[in-house]
Amino acid sequence: MDSLQVKCQSCDQQLASFFCHDCRIAVPVPRGVDYFRYLGLPQRPLVDAQRLEATYLRLSQEYHPDRHPDLSAEEKEAILYRSALLNQAYSCLRNPKQRVQYLVELLTGGERSRSKAIPPQIAELFRRVQTTLMAADAYLKEAERPKSSIEAVAFALKSSGVTAQRESLMACRKSIEGEQATVLSELQEIDAQWHQAGEASEQAFHRLNNVADALSYLDRLGQQVHERLVALHMLTPAILPATSTAPMPHPVGTDPQ
Amino acid sequence: MSRIIGIDLGTTNSVVAVMDSGMTLVVADTSGERITPSVVLFPKDGEPLVGTPANRQRALESDRTIYSAKRFMGKRGYEIAAEDMVVTYPVTGKGEGPVVFPIDGRVICPEDVAAEVLKKLRDDAAAFLGQDVTRAVITVPAYFNDAQRNATKRAGELAGLTVERIINEPTAAALAYGLGQELDAHIAVYDFGGGTFDISILEVREGVFKVLSTCGNTRLGGDDIDARIVAHLERQIRQAGHGDSLGRPHVTARLRDAAEAAKKVLSDETETEIKLPFLGPDFSFSYTLDRPTLEALMRDVVEQTRRPCIQALGDARLEPEQLAAVLLVGGSTRIPMVRDLVESIFQRTPDSSINPDEAVAVGAATQAAILEGHHDELLLLDVTPLSLGIETYGGLMNVIIPRNTTIPTKAGESFTTAVDNQRSVSIRVLQGEREMAHDNWELGKFLLEGIDPAPAGVPRVGVQFTIDADGILHVLARDQLTGHEQTVRMKSTVDMPEEQVNEMVQESIRRAQEDMAKRSLVEAQVKAKNLIQAVAAGMAQLQDRLTPAERERVNHTVAALQREVSNETSARAINEAYQAVDEATTRLAGLMYEEAVRQGAAAQQGDSTTS
């Protein structure tokens, strides 16, 4: 399924992971092995999600400390690092934003020159989301402020309350997801021209850098919207006064006759 | 080599399980009990008594019988609220110091109590297997922090066990559930026990149990419900004019037992009679508790499990309908009100096919079997429940490993100096979700020294965090220019030198009474002031609608409460006055409620006509 090829330094055997079952040792990971190579995946903007998942599960079975309870202390330490690195690599590569950023960093040999400006195609969305976030924050703050029972009830019954906030956040989420889809389709185009010689490749890298910026902003906005939605969800719809645990008297004057 | 046993070390009850001829079995002890109460009696002389025998003596020797010790595991003195100290045995702990139980001049710490329970379970398993047992997998609440995990590991060592793995309780339960069935689904585990609450969301595929998110509260459980019932019973006793019988440890112990028993009965029945003969010299208490009253008493305890569930679903980026099942674990999930809440959050009938008391131990034994080389199709991939980071300039928390990261993991970051020629940097390792450093739990603090003089911003200090498969953190700091390295063992309170602990204990015993009284007093004052304000607001608006007698009673009780608050005599006096105000304002609260609903409805109408 995957093409990870490792040679055991002790028995020269071809392995499909950095652990040799025959010698019971962790094979050293050569310097400069990046996350792609650690998982035996091609170094490019897109990864085959199914392949990544399958490789991760297979290597987890190989490296997880649970699979090696009887190793020497030194080998245990080594396998812990294999396993930790695997989890790190997997969580980076499965997430488009992290993967693209990581790839750009690899290609530039270090720190990515992150442009500070908001990419123009999302500037409008950015402003709209910020406004919605501010409204949501104000609402949440008011909702969580300790209130007298009367205020609490009035607040809870206000029609322009939680539903309205949720709807505008959902609308933002939808726009963000739409924009993310556009950026990801661009990523596909870039991937298609990957490893073509000369100009195209340089151009591809330039476009990749822009995609990294856009994804970074969109990811952040998406996270912020998500946090507010979770927080809104947590507001308990309790209308009962919180100060007393005594039972409520039945409303008077409701004689059915 | 010794077999590995699986232990669920619970707040209220503990269970041990082993794999035997391919089956995972819960081990019964010599009296045929499958569940051991996590209760230890420390007699004046002789060996500690563990489990049911200790539990039986609880009412008689309440000041030397320790229960719910798990609540204090890995805690520091300042973390213990006055209400936590309302147990029938002595508890002390101050500031950064550990929490200990001084009994007969001996210093007993929570780990010692856990170790006694573990020894008993170890012996039960050894008798069952017919061989010595020295290795174990022990479970902890998923939301336990680093110090609490370390304390549990140390308790295992004190019991002569090599702790081969610490695993999370809800994950263990999921493993027990998934045993023998081919699952390909997302599941949630709602684990509400005696003292802790956890929620975990997992993805199960091809035998791999991958935790996506986890959340919880390590001081929320059935114990809190019992405490509510006890307080309610005490109010009844006071109203009956027998308040003078209260406050003595053996009375509290008997009330606690009665409360717990009543709670259990009310999971099936709609009412139960509580009978406590000779609670005082000439006083026998009898009272009927019904389910609606119990539900009113425990509603906010149960309700507190809602937020973590929503958070965990949000962190997993899942909607309730994407789950295939919601498993119930822990004794408190037998309560109908809890089941209703779970149903309302997850919009489905929870799955109660697993034994809520035994599933965690069965899961621990399954993990033990994995470590012994069995079950090569099964693998647990768990997460770290809380974010880990260090404090950076300005008192901010800089997250290095975010919560819900799959473990084992490692991550590092580079930091630099804030002033010119700074020769050392102080590194504070923190765990928690808050933005400000001081709002999070401090795991440890150390100084990386020997930095070469340089202008601010030039030196590079690398800090690397590694979390092992037990969820325990290891920290390495490195001056990247000089290569000077420092590995840091995280401080948990148990690591302190013996003399220092003893000294602190002596000091705290002297101060304990004062401290606790002071703490309860402050808490009672705050509570009272809030109530006075709320009543004043209500009276300002609605006093015309009260009868003169009612008004008089409200004013009278509020004035009495006001007096107690400013007199600062005792928490108990304030609480009694508080109770009186609460009772005197029942009708006022009802009026406020009606008024609020009326106003709210009017506001809603107003809104809909203008929109």
Report a brief summary of the structure.
The complex is a heterodimer of chains A (257) and B (611). Chain A has eight helices and four strands. By secondary structure, chain A is mainly alpha-helical.
Walk me through what this model shows.
- The complex is a heterodimer of chains A (257) and B (611).
- Chain A has helices at 35-38, 49-63, 73-93, 96-108, 123-144, 149-157, 162-192, 199-234, and strands at 6-7, 14-15, 19-20, 25-26.
- Chain A is mainly α.
- By secondary structure, chain B is an alpha+beta fold.
- Chain B folds into 4 domains: 4-220 and 304-381, Nucleotidyltransferase, domain 5 (2-Layer Sandwich); 222-302, Alpha-Beta Complex (Actin, Chain A, domain 4); 386-495, Substrate Binding Domain Of DNAk, Chain A, domain 1 (Sandwich), CATH 2.60.34.10; 499-605, Substrate Binding Domain Of Dnak, Chain:A, Domain 2, CATH 1.20.1270.
- In chain B, 38% of the residues lie in helices and 25% in strands.
- In chain B, the strands form 8 sheets. In chain B, strands 1, 2, 3, 4, 10 and 11 form a 6-stranded mixed sheet that branches. In chain B, strands 17-12-13-14-18 form a 5-stranded mixed sheet, with helices on both faces.
- In chain B, helix 4 (169-178) crosses helix 10, helix 5 (222-239) packs across helix 6 and helix 12 packs antiparallel against helix 13 (571-584).
- Residues 492-498 and 606-611 of chain B have low confidence and may be disordered.
- At the A-B interface, helix 2, helix 3, helix 6 and helix 8 of A face helix 7, helix 8, helix 10, strand 18 and strand 22 of B.
